[in-house]
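Dear colleagues,

As part of the handover before I leave the project, I'm documenting each prediction I ran so the next person doesn't have to rerun anything. This entry is a single chain, and its sequence is reproduced below.
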Amino acid sequence: MPAKLRLCIRAALVVVALLCAACSGGDDESGFESNRPRPTDDVTHDHSGEVSALAPETVLAEDIAALGDGVAVGDTWPVWIGVNICGRFLEIPAVAATGGLAVDSSGLLTVAPGDGDEVGHAVTIGDVMSLVGVELGTGSVSMDERWAPQAVDVDGESVAVAGSTFSTGDPCVLGRDGAEPGEVQLWYYTPAAVDSGTDVRLVVTDPEDVPIIGADSAITIAFAPVSSLPTLPPAALVG
C-alpha cells in the first residue's frame, strides 16, 4: 500500500475513533449499556458485560507477549508511543539513547539493544515509561517534573501534569450526568492494527509488564473515560 494512502487511512480511522468516543459512554437514550469486560485483579475496576463492536479486546500482558519474541541485539525497531490524559496527547520528554532505548519528543521510541542490554520480553513499556518520568501500574499513572509545564482539563479544571497521579475511578471529563470517571489503560497496536485500526488490544492489569514485541507497533498509555475508544499516538500518523 502506498505510504500516502496508508497515512490517509490512519488519519480517517483516528477521526472515526474520536467521534465515536465523543458519542459513547454509559447508558444512552437508545438503551445501549456500556459494560466492557476487563481482566483485572481488582473487582472495583471490573466492567463485566459491556458489549461494543468497536471496543478493543481486553487482554493481559502475557497475551501481548504471545504475539512475538521481542527485540534482539542488533535489531533497530521504531515504535510509536503516546501518553493521553483525559483526551489530550502530551508532548513526551525526549531521552537520549540509554540501555538500548531512545525517545524523542514526537513520541518515536527507538529500540536498539546492544551487548549487555535487555532483550526479548524483558524490554517492557514500564522500562520506557520510567525513562520519560512516568510510574505506571494497575490503576494509576504518575508523572514527574519532566512533564512541566503541561496541563490538562480534568473535570472542567486545568490540572498540571507534572507531579500528578491519575487513578482509576478519579474524575476525568465532564459528561451529561456530571464527571465521568477515568481508567488507566494501555492500548497496544500491532503493525497490522496500526494500518487497519482494528484488533487493538487493551490492558488494564499490570500494564507496565507489557513487552514490546514488534517494530512499527504503537502503544498509548491513557487515563481515559471507560467509554472511550483507543486512539493512535499522533507520531504514528506521520511515521
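Confidence is low (pLDDT under 50) at residues 3-9, 13-53. The chain is about 20% helix and 30% strand.

All the best with the project,
I.
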